[in-house]
Amino acid sequence: MFSPEGPRLRELAVQALSSVEHGYDLLAPKFDHTPFRTPDSVLDATVSALRRTGPFDAGLDLCCGTGAGVEVLGQVCRESVTGVDFSAGMLTVARNRVRPPGPPVRWVRADARALPFGPVFDLVVSFGAFGHFLPRELPALFAGVHAVLRPGGRFVFPVVAPPRPGSLTYGMLLGFDAVMRVRNTVRRPPFVMYYRTFRFGDIRRELARAGFLVEFQALPEFGRRRDGSPKVRLVVAARAGA
Which residues pair with 233 in a beta bridge? Predict the structure, then answer.
């Protein structure tokens, strides 16, 4: 799962026993050499989809990590790009690594549940971060994103179709979530990272409650499952307005 440059088992164990913020501070220098980083294929497909509906002016990468989403925004935004994350370590790596073409980039350390912005963005993206939020936190999270978008702005993120019950992947994710629940029961502070708590039905319902108009777009680059459903979708949530 990991390249030779990635973290060792002991490093991952220390991270998992830390808080989310401190854990990612520790992981930051090697994060891009782990499978936790969103694959380039997903990032590239998202760029292609956004180019069909853009360009945009100001973009925000929510929970930007080491800046992969900022590089996406740099290809579709004309005026400015902002990356926000609460891990100082991840932001340090991002500042040193990311040199996207296009508009200037700023990096902001902040909690995604309390964004320090007004309605100044036309596009908000996020990649691979929602497992760090409990289901009860989604209403406030989505309401906060809605508040920083201009009228007509869009909140866009990819979601992978859930594995079928009984499959190897399903069992692995179920086991991972179970281990994390036990860990968070016996140790504080918790390390919130669950793979099976972010579901299509919950996404649509909570985005609609926050005031978004929601649609799912298939990413054709990844094909379809046997039942005809897309393997990867792009969630496009629009704030009503001009």
Answer: 159, 218
Distance CA 114, CA 145 (A): 9
The structure tokens listed for 28 are: 């930051």
Lowest-pLDDT range of 1-5, 43-47, 169-173: 1-5
Flag the least confident range among 49-58, 75-84, 99-108: 99-108
pTM score of the predicted model: 0.89
CATH number at residue 227: 3.40.50.150
Element (H, E) at 81: strand 77-85
Band of pLDDT at residue 8, cut at 50, 70 and 90: low
3-state SS class at 138: helix
pLDDT for residue 2: 54
- Inside any domain, residue 44: yes
Amino acid at position 80, single letter:
S
CB half-sphere exposure, 220, CA atoms < 13 A: 2
Does residue 2 lie in a domain region?
no
Question: Largest Cα–Cα distance of the chain, in whole Å?
Answer: 52
User: 10 lies in a domain?
Assistant: no
- The DSSP 8-state label assigned to residue 177 in this structure reads H
- Concatenated DSSP letters of 200-242: HHHHHHHHHHTTEEEEEEE-GGG-B-TTS-BSEEEEEEEES--
Domain count, the chain: 1
Domain of residue 110, residue span: 37-162+199-239
Q: Which of 155, 157, 158, 131 is nearest to 208 (CA)?
A: 155
Within-domain flag for 58: yes
Measured CA to CA, the distance from residue 9 to residue 53 in angstroms comes to 43
